Amino acid sequence: MLFEDLSFCINPGQALVLEGRNGSGKTSLLRILCGIRLPESGQLLWQGEDIFKLGPEFHEHISYLGHKDGSKLDLTPLENLRIARGLGKAKEGISLEDALDQVGLYGFEDVPTRNMSAGQQRRLAIARLLVTEAKLWILDEPFTSLDRKGIEHMERLFENHLRNGGMAAMTTHHRIGFQKVDLVRINLSER
What we know:
The protein is of the alpha/beta class. It has a single domain (14-190), classed as Rossmann fold. The protein has helices spanning 26-33, 51-54, 56-59, 77-87, 96-102, 118-130, 148-163, and strands at 14-19, 45-46, 49-50, 62-65, 136-140, 167-171, 182-187. α5 (96-102) packs across α6 (118-130). It is an enzyme of class 3 (hydrolase).
């Protein structure tokens, strides 16, 4: 068992930051939070209801960004965002082009994703978060492959999500530069 007696709550406007050494269970916990992996014991609740009983009703409220970007490499960024929007509840008031612009990919909308750098592919993965109404963003090392300026830019996008009532659960080995954000930290190495 990686951890036991773990209890926490994430409220609108908060970010849960999971810390710890490699192998301490950060990624495993994120996968449990989004229902990809079952917990050995205990329960996970979304608005007081068990997420495994809610099923798809729960999944429409979350977006998961794992270690891999999850993009289809043969498709363009616009095509990848169309798929993401089709799989989730589409966010009103933002076009796919606007989402690409917000992550610094304006001008790359028709380039095959396989021809983009690792940092650009990560930006595309983050753009997927922007095109759906998901309240809870579950992020496993979201700053991987991003340069310093890209990290700062993405931090502002995440802060905006939280200020607008969103929530996040994340791991990162980068120092987080969030400003005026309610962070809840759990160090799994200490459990």
